[in-house]
Amino acid sequence: EFRRFSLERSKPGKFEEFYGLLQHVHKIPNVDVLVGYTDIHGDLLPINNDDNYHKAVSTANPLLRIFIQRKEDADYSAFGTDTMTRKKNVLSNVLRPDNHKKKPHIVISMPQDFRPVSSIIDVDILPETHRRVRLYKYGTDKPLGFYIRDGSSVRVTSHGLERVPGIFISRLVPGGLAQSTGLLAVNDEVLEVNGIEVSGKSLDQVTDMMIANSRNLIITVRPANQRNNVVRNSRTSGSSGQSTESSLPSSTPNILANFLQGEEESDEEDIVIEGSGEPQQIPKATPTSESLESLTQIELLHESTQNGFLPSSEVNLNHSAGNVSMEYEVQEPDHKSLEEDGTIITL
Amino acid sequence: MRRFLRPGHDPVRERLKRDLFQFNKTVEHGFPHQPSALGYSPFLHLMAIGTRSGAIKLYGAPGVEFMGLHEENNTVMQIHFIPDQCQLVTLLDDNSLHLWSLKQHSGASELREEHRFTLKGPPGSPPSATQITAVLPHSSREVLYLGTESGNIFVVELPAFRVLEDRTITSEAVLQRVPEDYCNRRACELVEALREHPKNPDQILIGYSRGLIVLWDLQNNKVTHHFLGSQQLENLYWQRDGTKFISCHYDGSYTQWPVSSDNRQPEPLENVVPYGPFPCKAISKIYWQTTKNGLPYIIFQGGMPRASYGDRHSISVIHGSQQTAFDFTSRVIDFFIIFSSEPTADFDDPSAMVVLAEEELVVIDLKTAGWPAVHPPYLASLHCSAITCSHHVSNIPLKLWERIISAGSKQNIHYSSMPWPIDGGTNIAPDPPQRDLLLTGHEDGTVRFWDASGVCLHLLYKLSTVRVFLTDADPNDNMNTLGEDEWPPLRKVGTFDPYSDDPRLGIQKIYLCKYSGYLTVAGTAGQVLVMELNDEDAEHVVDHAEADLLQDQEGYRWKGHEKLKTRDGPVRFEAGFQPFVLVQCQPPAVVTSLALHSEWKLVAFGTSHGFGLFDHQQKRLVFVKCTLHPSDQLALEGPLSRVKSLKKSLRQSFRRIRRSRVSSRKRRGGSGNTSEVREANAKFDQDALQEMELAPVQRKIEARSAEDSFTGFVRTLYFADTFLRDSSRHCPSLWAGTNGGTVYAFCLRVPPAERRMDEPVRAEQAKEIQLMHRAPVVGILVLDGRSTPLPEPLEVAHDLSKSPDMQGSHQLLVVSEEQFKVFTLPKVSSKLKLKLTALEGCRVRKVTVANFGSCKTDDYSENDLAVLTNLGDIQIISLPFLKLQIRYPCIRKEDVSGIASCVFTKYGQGFYLISPSEFERFSLSTKWLVEPRCVVDMPEITSNNHVQNKSGMENAARKPRSSGDYGEDERKSGRLMEHALLNDEKVLKEIQSTLEGGR
């Protein structure tokens, strides 16, 4: 089944919206699907988050070929380099997976099925003895679950070795976020909180800073155990995008992730309830009232009810800026969307 | 984003900031904490008070004050002015002497330490050999006589403190001609008192503690008279003509001795035990003052019958048949008598007695029959009942000011009309630019109105809310009901009364509308009183209303204190602010926020359970809103009472410590006593230390959640006329912020004035904002279309403010402890934020909008936020862009009570408590500065005077104060030192950990 529709290249929107649009266009609202596209080299690459969605839209010229597979019978091996050249006909591959199935793959869920709980970041700019850990509190019910204390650490200064006061992790609560990541340990020295050095600050100040940043806490520590440090050059961390790890404590801590700094701003959005209505996330006021964000500009154009298509669609990217022709249905914001990014409804 | 919030480096703005902001601690108001010594200069008419923390403060005419701080922070034991000089000597408890002088700089006098000195004995001598017990500045102004524990008297030359060894008066020399049997019975022991002969500067009277008194001739270096006292000596006093002196003793007696050339070893003229015959306490100081009518004034401290009145702090005044024992509320540190210092006058003619008690200064008018007290213009006992809250109102309209003063004057009729007798120096500070009121709420249910316009914080009027309620205490309890023939004739003086009848009476929040004279106060037991200023006494019924803040929440039981019982029927109120309605919150938890809108006649109040709105015109409750989280058991049960009880027990232990310190006041009363106290204190320290060790110092890192305790605690309430629903119509609104980071906004419909009594006020919830960081909301503010904060109610009606811009879009500023956020209105979208805690690790404790005027141009002023953080820093943050302008360290971060007490004014000044009894005043503004600026006249010192004194002539150098020859000196503003205080850091920490332990 094929569908063809247009998207505005300059304002692709979010992956979730796109996903919703696809489901709508194909009238498969409750079917979990995997979305893939062919890049300029002919590789079949997945679309499962904002980043690769944006990448897909920006590299399309002008057609973006999208493949949709039912998740249950998806062929994960289909993705990857040279997929398109190797398999002359991706469609046949998709439609008749049995022909090409070489061996059963261990199914590792797509990253979007996980919620990041922690990550090590900025490995490339930090000394090897330090570790910068990001804890994602939002969306999880797990407590952060750690305690800090005063202590003293030894520093090399111009006067030789000197004892200076420092802040240390004193306790991890079993089952807490901090413990479950395996990235923090008792007696790790805390050096920074969200980019701000703690030296010279009191225990109470550091406590307040951590709590104030608790929804998106980035702490730089000098681990008490220096044996598990990231070894530089062991891996070229060119891969942008986020790598995440499962919440198993046994997982290896050497996972890299680089994040856009701007992401910090999205961590906490206050909620407003107007009158007796539904709670909503408070939007950011735009500098001028005319230039509305793309998200707020939702047009209900039900042009998707076109002739029958195969379960594969082509998106026509419309280059005429300002002419919004992206179409999808407005979703009623459920509670979950409030926690992340939501649409705005004025009641 | 963050980059733009950092202070910019725009040079124009930087220059403007210098013209706008400047931080100064300007003056300390109130009564010095832990005073330890008193001095007076009859020549300068200046009084000096020393404290246990090493501060020394000089006071003269109202507005004339100086302060100095000894580097050592040791207790000031004695203060002595150098006769006829602008100099004084202090003795600290580390046995060091310090010479201070008042010098003129830039036209204003300044107190400076000139020299310091510690007396050193010969090598190998015990420390007691040089432990100074008595100091006599000689009238020659050149030497100090220093009596010591060893009995030797050392002579040091001023101003350099050079020891004149050849002039030392040794106890051996004194004992040479003392009768053998007397000598055997008693050694000299320490020097208790040194007194110069009033007529002959070459003779000094030396009193030793065991009772021996000698008259020493400085010219011939020998004893001329021996007075063989049989009782342990406390003090000596010369009569004016030098023919007699009087000694007072440990057993509560005093003795008069004659001094004449014919009897070198006279017997006492009389020996009296004024409160005998049963054993009496020591008389520690005595005055014998002559008058024209022949009847002397005998004034002495102590001497009360040991068994029945031994605990009284008394000073007795006897004048002929009149006798009164003034009974002070706290220990008497010292006292002095103001009398005629004219050397030519034949009589002392005492006019006033000035008593420094531990907690207050009391001045008694001795000229007026009945010896009434004089109302002091400064050194007010702010803490006569513990301060529980304060509220500052700037720029009071003259009319209200006069009415408050008139109400206050009716309360002060029992005071003497005598002008303030300590009138040295000249206040040259410009008149305060406006009338400011500082209102303090107290634990005993009173509100005190202070004139905070100038340097002297002066009590204008005292309001008591107690009359509305029925309390256990009998109102006549504190009255002086002693009859005519009571013995001893005790009379209570002073206002210090720290013991509250009922802690529920305590005032927690105050709001005064300066335009309408409406005042609302709220207290510990959920009581909210609305009052109106009435110039006459009146008797009326106070209307009652109940606000059930738990309304539909079922099955909760309040375990805190009960509400106060109210008086039935009409109650008589004196002129002043008279309550007309009482709103009682249920449960009767502490009122945590309060707002009054005098134009709409509405009062809003909040507790840990919710908030309510009351229409005081119709006397009708408009609505209540419960903010309590259903699982918040702590708030339900009234845990604040637990904090209270801890505070109480802390206070009790303070009292205990204080009492034990009081008993050790006599440093030389045997070293055993002091060491005992020291041991007790050490033990106390140790216990506290052990408690600290039990609780490991670690902090839990956890995000705030909706389930935390006290999220429903209402922290702030705010009335605004703004665009709450749509951008075309504005309406009255009420805003409330909670501890859990929730902001509620209610749309109000207030009927127009002509139908105000007929139609009810209606309210409807319009918005609820939940800050995701869930920090307590401490401030809410609406900015108008020009980004100016909305004016106060009635401000526009009185033409004192531009009417707000109702055209442009309004903005809402929400200040939480962690962040400042600006939202648009009526559609709430976030516009700007400043994440203070995430960046700096400090939290907002107090925040106010303040107007800063430029010191360079009169026509420029701007509104900024003045913020005090939990680290004691003050920050100024611009409006509406939330840029940090400047930061000053102000209060030590350990001083939680100081930080909690801070109150900002509308024009960039502020006050905070540096001790229970003192406000430090500070200024953030270059334009509005209230600080002492005064001049003390220099005496004319001629060589002639020196010769006169040296040659043993009469002490004629004493001149009346001449005013006005200070003109040509350099000018420089007075320097003020910060006061060292609150040594009990661990106690503060303990309070802090208790208060913050919950999180």
UniProtKB/TrEMBL annotation, chain A:
Residues 132-225 form the PDZ domain. InterPro entries: PAR6_homolog, PB1-like, PB1_dom, PB1_Par6, PDZ, PDZ_sf. SMART domains: PB1, PDZ. Residues 234-252 have a biased composition (Low complexity). Keywords: Cell cycle, Cell division, Cell junction, Cell membrane, Cytoplasm, Membrane, Tight junction. PROSITE patterns: PB1 (PS51745), PDZ (PS50106). One of its GO terms (cellular component) is nucleus. Residues 228-254, 328-347 are annotated as: Disordered. The keyword Mitochondrion does not apply. It is found in: Cell junction, Tight junction; Cell membrane; Cytoplasm. GO terms for biological process: cell division; centrosome cycle; establishment or maintenance of cell polarity; regulation of cellular localization. Residues 1-71 form the PB1 domain. Belongs to the PAR6 family. This is PAR6B protein. The lineage of its organism: Eukaryota, Metazoa, Chordata, Craniata, Vertebrata.
UniProtKB/TrEMBL annotation, chain B:
Pfam families: LLGL, WD40. One of its GO terms (biological process) is cortical actin cytoskeleton organization. GO terms for cellular component: cortical actin cytoskeleton; plasma membrane. Residues 658-669 have a biased composition (Basic residues). Gene3D superfamilies: YVTN repeat-like/Quinoprotein amine dehydrogenase. WD repeats lie at residues 69-110, 433-451. GO terms for molecular function: GTPase activator activity; myosin II binding. Residues 272-372 form the Lethal giant larvae homologue domain. Keywords: Cell cycle, Cell division, Cytoplasm, Exocytosis, Phosphoprotein, Repeat, WD repeat. It comes from the Eukaryota. It is found in: Cytoplasm. InterPro entries: Lethal2_giant, LLGL2, WD40/YVTN_repeat-like_dom_sf, WD40_repeat_dom_sf, WD40_rpt. Residues 658-680, 945-973 are annotated as: Disordered. Interacts with GPSM2/LGN, PRKCI/aPKC and PARD6B/Par-6. The complex is enhanced during mitosis. Interacts with DCAF1. Part of a complex with GPSM2/LGN, PRKCI/aPKC and PARD6B/Par-6, which may ensure the correct organization and orientation of bipolar spindles for normal cell division. This complex plays roles in the initial phase of the establishment of epithelial cell polarity. Belongs to the WD repeat L(2)GL family. This is LLGL scribble cell polarity complex component 2. The lineage of its organism: Eukaryota, Metazoa, Chordata, Craniata, Vertebrata.
